[in-house]
Amino acid sequence: MIGKLSFLLTLIVLVCASCSSRYYIRRGNVIYETGRYYKAETKYDKAFNKARNPELRARAAMLAARCTEDVNKIADAHNWYRKAVQANKELPDPYLKMAEMNVRRGDFDAAFENYERFAELFPEDERAKDGRYYVELLMKDLSQETRYTVELQKDFNSRYGDFGPVFYPEDNNIVYFASSRPQEKRKGKRTDPVTGDAFCHIYVTEYTQEIKTVDKQGKVKVKRFPEPRWLKPAVLKDSLWSPKGEGGLCFSADGNDLYFTSSRVVEGRNRGTRIYKAQRTEDEKTGKKIWGKLSKSGICGDSVSVGHPAVTPDGSRIYFATDLLPGGKGGKDIWFAEWLDGKWGEPQNAGDLINTEKDEMYPYVRDNGELYFASNGHNGYGGLDIYCLKEVEGEQQLEHLPAPINSFADDFGITFRSGKEEGFFTSSRVGRNDKIYSFAYIPQQLKVKLLARNNTTELPIPKVAVTVTCDDGSVVYLETDSTGMAQMEVLPQQEYVFAAENPRFLKGKGMVSTYREKGDRVFEVLIEMQPIEKPIVIPNIYFDLGKWELRQDAMDNLKELLTILKDNPNIAIELSAHTDMIGNDKANLELSEKRAQSVVDYLISKGVYWDRLEAKGYGETQPRQIDEKTAKAYSFLKVGDVLTERFVNRLRGQQREDALQLNRRIEFKVTRTNYKPGPDSRHNPYLVARTAEEVQKVGETRLKDLKSVKGAFFTLQLGVFKTVPQLIYNFPVVFTEKVNNGGVRYCTGIYDTREEAAAAAAALKKKGIDCFVRGYN
User: Fold this and answer.
1) Is 285 found in the same domain as 210?
2) CATH number of the domain within which 428 lies
3) Is residue 702 within 8 Å of 760, Cβ to Cβ?
4) CA 178, CA 139: separation in Å to the nearest integer?
């Protein structure tokens, strides 16, 4: 009888406990629906402690975990999910949620352990496999190097929650933000039923090197710091403050209006969060600027809870977040209203590109008009991630900000310094509460180091004037120092041409392209310049035995000489051919003359004016003299050796063959440095018809009447020159424009589209003529 009574009493206790537990779960559910997550968690906590049924305990733990997760208390959420597993090991979801919380805390090893445990217990369920795959991708993305640096803003963070920083307009030294640091030190202080922390209020801090204060006698005191610093944040106690707390805020462009989120009591009732507007006024007593007149913003009336305002720079639109308007996509959405007839119009959903079935919050409009916001619905790194809506070639595209701005935790509430690629944002990546972080973009570091060098002696050349032309049309002038060096920074996605000039040398050229260059880089440009006073050997110009007709390989090797003549339009040259001493002297002389002439004829056929060129055959009468460069290439020769017949005959085997080959050469020397083309220069007197026709074809570009052009058109920039080069005479020039240091920009052709102009430029480049596309309006 006693045993039955004991069993009955135990059964009654269990039933009562079960009923009590279910009661607290129901109470928690009602409170949760009002958004008071912390208070709801306390009910679920009681339900958990009173429940004796494993399934009921696990259910209460899961509901409590949801509350703590909603207020971003990830460690507490993880603890509740662990309790759910302990209560009922047969439930699959707590293992997955623990892995998710591990990821949001940055503990990837623990996340993999939970996924493994899940896979062992529930082998038919593929979610663990998907979770591991996601974590592996996340770890790979977070390990990628980016150009952003991120640092915890220790100067004005506290050990409580700090979030939503905003710069005061046109002043990068004043920051407003929200914080839950407590204002009351007494016991029984008020706590926010949503988070369980103190209510949030708006604070302000200033970056300065001095503080001015006024004592009771009206005397101004100034305290100076060795270095500028952020001052201790001060809570704003004027019209912005309320006992129920404030949150996200923004300013009008002129800084006179402040829009902010507040959960203050209205007409004796708690109506959720609203957006209010405060106006900046002057305090009648102190004369200081304060936030005075307060009014409702007029967004959605009093029937809908809204927050996170963001006004566009022109004041024509305000963005905000809510989950209570009809027509939403699910969760919290970004909405906007237009300023019409002195008030905000009807709310409009920001659309599918921004909003998802999950949460989109914390909109922010940068001074360039770009919209930033936070979302956990766009497959980011985890939690809330920051996104930007940008316009690319007329289409709006969503950009996910890279690590380390985005992380495995919640990242939101970004703000930029005016006109700069730096600022602050909020993240929960470290510790229990949200913190404010600073970020900065490090521009791509691209630099050119240029060396001008004597091509014969391989010694550096000082005092070389370098004209740098970029394909965006800009021109920069450099000069090499005593070591022959010059350097400059260059921009990404550009092409640069370096034209080097010195009176004692032929002009040289180098080129750098930064297109498709992703990382930092130092480009090394070597410009080898030929001295004018010495003959210059054209390498690898070979003829068949006893022949003078140019072979194809010889034509290809003459491209360098064509470039030299194009880059140095003021020089005239003697082009000479030389033979070895084998064979008849007279035959060698005649053969060399014909070979020299065949090279000259080829150059003329490529558009070089005939009166710049003189063909000369020397046979074997001018044996080669060895210079520094040749001596390095042949160990049996030294600088100053002359390859006479007597010298060569002392050599044997390969050395003798090498010496004979060195004597068989085509070279040129500068005879004039003041050449100017005359009226008959372009016509070869020996090949008039063919050459004139080819020269005309080189300069064909599309022309049209400028009066018929409406809007934008495109032309080809042939170059920037201080003296008119031969190249210009081949083209109908439609534009000339003076630039710095007396240079003149020459452009040819008129095209309707950039694609047409680019095709024409490509065709000219195939003919060895460099040019850039320029747009005009």
Assistant:
1) yes
2) 2.115.10
3) yes
4) 31
Number of structural domains found in the chain: 5
Same domain for 343 and 199: yes
Helix (H, G, I), strand (E, B) or coil at 4: helix
pLDDT in tens, 20-66: 888 999 998 988 888 888 899 999 999 899 888 889 998 999 999 99
Same domain, 303 and 221: yes
Domain end position, chosen among 412, 441, 470: 441
CATH code of 59's domain: 1.25.40.10
- pLDDT winner (highest mean) among 193-207, 262-276, 479-493, 561-575: 479-493
Tell which of 634, 669, 692 closes a domain. 692
Mean pLDDT across 443-449: 94
Residues 6 or more apart whose Cβ sits within 8 Å of residue 714: 750, 751, 752, 753, 754, 756, 757, 773, 774, 775, 776
Tokens encoding 506: 């032929």
- Give the CATH number of the domain where residue 712 resides: 3.30.70
Tokens of 41: 């968690």
Domain match, 390 and 502 both: no
Q: Are residues 154 and 204 in the same domain?
A: yes
CB atoms within 10 A of CB 757: 24
Residues 559 and 656 in one domain: yes
Residue 522: CATH number of its domain: 2.60.40.1120
Task: Find, among 392, 391, 380, the residue nearest to 356 by Cα.
Answer: 380
Q: Which residue has the higher pLDDT, 15 or 369?
A: 369
* 569-585: pLDDT as tens digits: 889 999 999 988 888 88
Distance (Å, whole) CA 581 – CA 589: 10
Q: Are 517 and 501 in contact (CB under 8 A)?
A: no
Name the residue among 525, 495, 488 with its Cα closest to residue 508.
Answer: 525
- Cis amide bond preceding 685, omega within 30: no
Q: What is the pLDDT of residues 308-319, one digit of tens each?
A: 999 999 999 999
H or E segment and range at residue 295: strand 289-296
124 shares a domain with 10:
yes
User: Tell me, what's the pLDDT at 691?
Assistant: 38
Report pLDDT for 351: 93
Determine the residue type at 223: K
What pLDDT score was predicted for residue 768? 75
The reply to whether 123 and 18 lie within a common domain is yes
Q: Is the dihedral of CA 589, 590, 591, 596 positive or negative?
A: positive
Neighbours of 327 (CB within 10 A): 9
- What pLDDT does 11 receive? 43
Q: What is the pLDDT of residue 694?
A: 42
> What is the per-residue pLDDT for 776?
83
Domain limits at 521? 446-529
- CA pair distance 756, 702, nearest whole angstrom: 10
pLDDT-wise least confident of 91-105, 324-338, 545-559, 632-646: 545-559
Residues 100, 118 contacting (CB under 8 angstroms) = no
Q: How many Cβ atoms are within 10 Å of 157's Cβ, its own excluded?
A: 21
CA-only gyration radius of the chain, Å? 40
Taking the CA atoms of residue 298, residue 304, residue 307 and residue 309 in that order, the dihedral angle to the nearest 10 degrees is -30
Q: Are 202 and 178 in contact (CB under 8 A)?
A: yes
Return the amino acid letter for 538.
I
The encoded tokens of residue 81 equal 């999910």
Q: What share of the chain is helix, strand, coil (3-state, %, to 5)?
A: 30, 35, 40
- The count of other CB atoms within 10 Å of the CB of residue 545 is 4
Dist CA 111 CA 92 (whole Å): 15
For position 573, which CATH number holds? Answer: 3.30.1330.60
